[in-house]
């Protein structure tokens, strides 16, 4: 990259006001002359930097103007990704001639891989590259995958032209074509997966948590972020899906590629005005140090008073991060911060062995991850529900009456009802749910993130019940095993709408929860947990399909999810997921009550200065 961001500069919290005027290159050089002119501009007090490595000026960097640019970037990248993913199951069955169960499994594995790569992007972002560079590199990989997919489809797979439209059959694909196709879609998975959690965190970085107004904007940002994600996918699920369903696969993939290119260009446009944070180093090393230090002191009894545990004076030992106060959970890890006689004998005036003695902040960072994991595990069954939209919902719609007059509605386009539901319920939640619930909970947000996630699981459960009822009605309206049911595809609207409503509670709640509860040094990892849940959910869905088909196809039975759904019992599979969701909800209630949030160190003097600064700026 030609740009140099000056990340080698030390990021310090600047608790003073700077003045600024045009014509100079350094805020520091301009401070004195501007103060004489009486012009006052404040520096973001959260340690954020501009692209040159200086403390970021509020007037030039971050805020809603630049956050909106990132929201547009997110919408365009999402349009590009869903332009491929929403109809991919039909591409596998029509063009690559896979059966329904094989295609559903391949989609689950691919989608799971997309979100699994989010952990890779989060690790690189938090540890080495920083969020800007991570977003830029993975978006480029996304574009590369889309270019490869478009060329592969055009030159090697769509033969004859226009095939794969339910009428004209495609020729048997070559081994080369299939190999390059899978390489292309997994490049897309790698690019979008690594980009997605990092852009969410990078967007929230544009707001200062220590500023009262910007803190409120940061809380609102995640709702808009998920709104932008769904708004971007709306075009894919309506316009692009129609062209692809009619056999114009290459055109659809080219449109996705164009959207990704425009999104990447817009991302670069904002480079001079972003707020940047330094990467905090490899968190795996810090985790390993805590575990090793605790094991080496296995026989040491931690003090009952957490104030007697080891902590550095002044700034945190983790670069660019706030200190975390001691908590009582997972007390055995406190051994790592317990000062023993050997630590005192080993100590010099220069260094302390970090593999034997860790700071409270470092120990609490590990505790935060351990506390979040049980909550995260409870979100996996919900992700199993969510992944049905990209596979079995589409296959179910394919064998329903898709006619609306003289027009046949593509089954995959029904996911537009999910998107519209998200957009509508996002507005309803902010306009009605928050004001009403805040009166009872005395929480300005209305519901806590954990409460929202629990409600999301319940609504997702209802979506599976609705899907099962629809399937039962569909089976009643078939005249032969080879015919399409006379039941209108619009019977799927309730299940799509309920999934959309559940997303507003579950996924927005997840984004806020994991981002807020993750320590400063692993913020991208926190955002990636949301996508990692989707990843594991896809793999669990694939595992469930395999188990169900193995059990239900004995004695020459067709099974619950055969290639010909008219001979199966898809509704039983939906009801099975609903039962699993009910069990998951009960476990979640217990864990949500057990969970205690992160407790960051606050500086009363800092908060008072921030308040005074805010009043003067106003």
From TrEMBL:
Protein's UniProt keywords contain Transmembrane helix: yes
Keyword list, A-Z: Membrane, Transmembrane, Transmembrane helix
One GO MF term attached to the UniProt entry: transmembrane transporter activity
Entry-linked InterPro entries: MFS_trans_sf, POT_fam
Location relative to the cell: Membrane
Key word ATP-binding present: no
Chief location category: membrane
GO cellular component: membrane
Annotated TM spans: 75-95, 107-125, 132-156, 176-195, 221-243, 249-269, 373-394, 414-432, 453-469, 529-553, 573-591
Membrane topology according to the record: Multi-pass membrane protein
Family classification: Belongs to the major facilitator superfamily. Proton-dependent oligopeptide transporter (POT/PTR) (TC 2.A.17) family.
The protein's name in its UniProt record: Major facilitator superfamily (MFS) profile domain-containing protein
